[in-house]
Amino acid sequence: MGLNSAVCKQWVFSMIADPMKNGVLIIRTLRNNIIASSLLATTAITLSSVISVFVSTSTSSSSSSSSDITVSQQLVYTIPLSSIKYFCILLCFLVGFLCNVQSTRYFAHASFLATLPTGKDKTDYIEYVLTTVNRGSYFWSLGLRAFYLSIPLFLWIFGQFPCLFVAA
Question: Is the per-residue pLDDT at 78 higher than 70?
């Protein structure tokens, strides 16, 4: 992430140094990042919804079979391991969704900031643009890492061994 920040700093300074030549490149690059973040956010919230529906239908069918125990007692005393696994995956996708939404937010804000005309002596303004792009990049990395973490968590549903093979 430190190398990414250093490269991003050089990129922002070189793009803002000559806005007439690099203005379109700034917008296209940030637009591509926004599209990628939006796609990952949409995928994460869709998968979260699918997992939520799957868990709710499986718990409602299992709760109807045991009529002696109330639903609250069943949830408190007999939480199955599969529910914990699905909750971990759901949490992972929700974190990925939130990070990708924040990434989209910062990249959209940076696209407005980077196209404003500025002089070369306005280093505080350029640093603010750089900070905004870096924050978008950090959230992008965190959202992508949440997706990477979801792969072993998904394989955890099938047992410990598939999860260990992916982690190794």
Answer: no
